[in-house]
Amino acid sequence: MPKISVIIPVYNQERFLSKCLDSVLNQDLEDIEIICVDDGSTDSTYSILQSYASKDARVKILRQENKFAGSARNLGLSVASGEYIHFLDSDDYLFPNIYKKIYHTLKENNLEMVKFRAKVLDDETRETQIHNWTELVSIVPKDQFNKVLSFKTDAKFLISLPDTCWSGMYSLEFLKRNNKQFNEFRVANDTSFFIQCIVDVDRLMILDEYVVYWRTNVGTSLMDNRIKYYECQLKSYLTIADICKKIPEKQAKLIMNQQFEALMYWLKKWNEELENTEKYDDFKNTVSEFLKSLDLSFLNKKVISYWWCDTYCIFVDNVKKDMPLFGYFKFKTYNKIKYTFILFGIKLTLSRKIKRGYKYYKRLNKRRYKKELEMWYQHVTGNFLNLKHPETINEKIQWMKLYDSTPLKSRLTDKYAVRDFIKEKIGEKYLIPNLGVWDKFDDIDFDKLPNQFVLKGNHGCGCNIIVKDKSTFDKEEARKKFKTWLKTDYAFTNGFELHYSAIKPKIIAEKYIEAVDQAAIDYKFICCDGKPILCWVTNKYLTVHKRGFYSLPDWTLQNIELKDGGAELDTEGVPRPQKLDEMIEIAKTLSKGFPLVRVDLYLIENDIYFGEMTFTSASGAAAFYPDKWNYILGDKITLPEVETKKRGAKC
Hints:
By secondary structure, this protein is of the alpha+beta class. Among the domains are: 265-355, no CATH class; 402-635, D-amino Acid Aminotransferase, Chain A, domain 1 (2-Layer Sandwich), CATH 3.30.470. The chain has 22 helices and 26 strands. The strands form five sheets. Strands 1, 2, 3, 4, 5, 6, 7, 8, 9 and 10 form a ten-stranded mixed β-sheet that branches. Strands 18, 19, 20, 21, 23, 24 and 25 form a seven-stranded mixed β-sheet that branches. Strands 14-17-15-16 form a four-stranded antiparallel β-sheet, covered by helices on one side. The protein is elongated. The relative contact order is 0.07.
């Protein structure tokens, strides 16, 4: 009879399997068997196992279709013949010459089970890290190491030991006598197995020894799948609850309080990961129904913590009032949710912060766009958003973001694709010459570019680098900037400008024209379906930029101010441009067919240059002063007829 049976479930572990097997075969205890259960691997795992088995008779191979680690461990356990069992994961490995010491400790003390320490190895950084959980230092009092313990007398801290099966070794006779088996969940089968074992153990020792290197940050690790198969964690919890029905109430409550807190930890973690994804609604509904079905009468008010009460209230608005915890939704604002709950007769209120930003909006389910846009608008402008009957220019821009973000708008917002439209509508002479277009920075052949040029991202705002001298151009810095810019979807950087999402990011190079770079005046024509309404002019001659709005075609300075901090109100005005009539005709031509668009032009000496077409100016959050202009301009916009109810449902 082998002294130790090492059971290793293996699935597609060609990267780490040899390291694992070598660490077992080279142990100072030779009288062992190594049962490798190939769980339907599709890479070279099985060939590696065959190679080891052909060289060492201690290596035995079992094969099954992919049923996951719990099933594989059960299969290995069914044929194991060693006095003691160690379940080892195939991406972990052993400390040298440790098995003999563990075996003698088990044998000499007639132990049913031991638990031991482990080191954490980060596979990405290749660094060994300290983790209090695997080190046991935050769990086990110093005087409890290397001492025979029993669940009957020492349950309070035994239940907090690591629930991983690889961090312990078990008597085969103990496992068979008590009919211990793994649940065949895809993940989270360790925990229920640990609880099964711990509640029946009479002779256990916690060893002050390092036995396993636990590898983390591995794409194939079981830990990485935990969030994908969160329902397994819920099933595991119910399994443990069933186990606790068969043991004394005092110990059962200890376990259930500890397990409920652990469950809340995972739910909090998963909620943060899934909150802005398409999976979130199903996740929240499943967890909500699960929590509502639980009997929480075991809860001990001495161990209840605020953080998990907060997590609980995320999922459960109302539960039975005769339970110790009665939680319900109170109030939601832009950056926080407030909950009120009654705990053992005491009323408490908690706030949960919401971190809204690019990542939050990028990961949102489309069905939530409308609600989130309303909250964003109120937060930015201080006003409620009326999407059913929009009146102001800002409200109508928000409406068009949701319901009129057309492919044509995406094409004309694309700084490269718009060039063909300009050529067709008004002629190539109004375009700044293009020098090239690339999908990524490393594709650019800078030797073919002139000494001066401008690099731009075609798909967003502010993605510009002006190169006035190629010999001093910092390519590395530019590469870093474009790496970030090209990964950014500008639809979600400032209030759901959704037409940006359809633009495929590219890098374009344009001819550097010093006069354009230093253009003192920008002319931005606000147009409604081929009719220029106002010309928004930024005067950069002065130290402080000044902005004015001019009626068309008479060029009368209007008393309009934008409170955005970008420029001061221009009270003096600028002269009527010599080519205003031509610019107006260009704006008319380009804006025809669009309820609202801003056409930006430069006038350099006698030449007109096209800048861009903007369909959601200031993202529809411009602070007009006096506010009547918000309504005056809004009245000029005729929204297209679309099926807003149907489209809105998608948002």
